[in-house]
């Protein structure tokens, strides 16, 4: 992911409840055991969505997901253009 495509969330302008929710989510995601599970599940979904499966589950996840292959292609194109600048 290109660094310039990321921006920080200005949490000081958000409500206390929202800041607390973000903090709890961040803490949960960054526990090693949770991080591992999240990455494993993300990989599994990616393979289902980008695969050729015809099952109802595959179609369900494709309907919910972005077209990862197009996004990857566009990201490579963007990175190549940035290198040429």
Describe the structure in brief.
The protein contains 4 helices and no strands. With 85 residues, the chain is mostly helical.
Give the ordered list of helices and strands: HHHH
How many separate helices?
A: 4
Tell me the Rg in angstroms: 17 Å
Distance between the termini: 17 Å
Q: Which of globular, elongated, flat, extended, rod-shaped describes the shape? A: extended
Low-confidence stretches: none
DSSP strand tally: 0
Structural class, by secondary structure, is mainly alpha
β-sheet strand percentage? under 5%
Q: What does the largest sheet look like?
A: none
What's the overall average pLDDT, rounded?
91
Helical fraction equals 55-70%
Number of domains: 1
Layout of secondary structure:
Elements (H helix, E strand, L loop, with lengths): L15 H14 L2 H19 L5 H9 L3 H17 L1
Helix pairs in contact: 2-3
What does this structure look like?
With 85 residues, this protein is mostly helical. It has one domain (13-84). It is 69% helix and 0% strand. It has four helices and no strands. Helix 2 crosses helix 3. It is extended, with a radius of gyration of 17 Å.
Annotation keywords:
single chain, 85 residues, mainly alpha, 0% strand
């Amino acid at each position: 992911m290109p660094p310039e495509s990321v921006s920080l969330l200005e949490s000081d302008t958000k409500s206390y409840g929202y800041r607390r929710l973000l903090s709890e989510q961040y803490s949960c995601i960054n526990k090693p055991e949770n991080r591992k599970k999240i990455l494993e599940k993300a990989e599994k979904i990616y393979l289902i969505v980008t695969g050729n499966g015809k099952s109802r589950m595959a179609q369900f996840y494709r309907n919910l997901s972005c077209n990862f292959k197009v996004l990857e292609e566009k990201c490579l194109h963007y990175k190549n253009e940035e290198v040429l600048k």
